[in-house]
């Protein structure tokens, strides 16, 4: 039941994320509101972490437990790996450049925002798991 709930939350989150991103691109929110990518990264971190929990539960061995240490590891590893890969993708696709004046502060803010979403997802997951 928990896996099914996580999958539905994951799908709903990525749908909201995609819709927000589409509107932000179409309405130039990313250029008008310089902060508008922060909620996208928070939501992305939430989605990555919820999806990681779902994948862990779907593919874990029968003798593997999901304790607090494992949960925290899932949050940090999933958000860090996907967040860094996303920033590399943005560089490779030409959406940004290291020579841009605020590249490093923006990149740090993006990854930190993803972590915030991941921590929220971790707290949410622990509440779901305990119910």
Morphology call:
elongated
Mean pLDDT: 90
* Total helical segments: 5
What structural category arises from helix and sheet content? mainly alpha
Spans where pLDDT lies below 50 across 5 or more residues = none
Helix content: over 70%
Number of domains: 1
Beta-strand segment tally = 0
Q: Could you list some keywords that capture this structure?
A:
131 residues, elongated
Written overview of the protein:
This protein is mostly helical and 131 residues long. The chain has one domain. It has 5 helices and no strands. The protein has helices at residues 2-26, 29-32, 37-59, 68-92, 103-130. Helix 1 runs antiparallel to helix 3 and helix 4 (68-92) runs antiparallel to helix 5 (103-130). The chain starts with a helix and ends with a helix.
Topology summary:
Elements: H1 2-26, H2 29-32, H3 37-59, H4 68-92, H5 103-130
Helix pairs in contact: 1-3, 3-4, 3-5, 4-5
Short characterization:
The protein is mostly helical. The chain contains five helices and no strands.
């Amino acid at each position: 039941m928990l896996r099914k709930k996580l999958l539905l939350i994951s799908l709903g989150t990525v749908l909201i994320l995609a819709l927000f991103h589409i509107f932000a691109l179409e309405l130039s929110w990313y250029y008008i509101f310089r902060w508008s990518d922060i909620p996208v990264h928070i939501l992305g971190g939430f989605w990555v972490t919820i999806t990681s929990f779902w994948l862990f539960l779907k593919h874990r061995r029968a003798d593997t437990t999901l304790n607090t240490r494992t949960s925290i590891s899932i949050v940090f590893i999933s958000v860090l790996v996907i967040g860094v890969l996303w920033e590399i993708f943005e560089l490779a696709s030409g959406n940004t450049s290291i020579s841009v004046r605020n590249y490093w502060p923006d990149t740090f803010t993006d990854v930190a925002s993803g972590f915030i979403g991941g921590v929220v997802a971790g707290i949410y997951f622990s509440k779901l798991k305990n119910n």
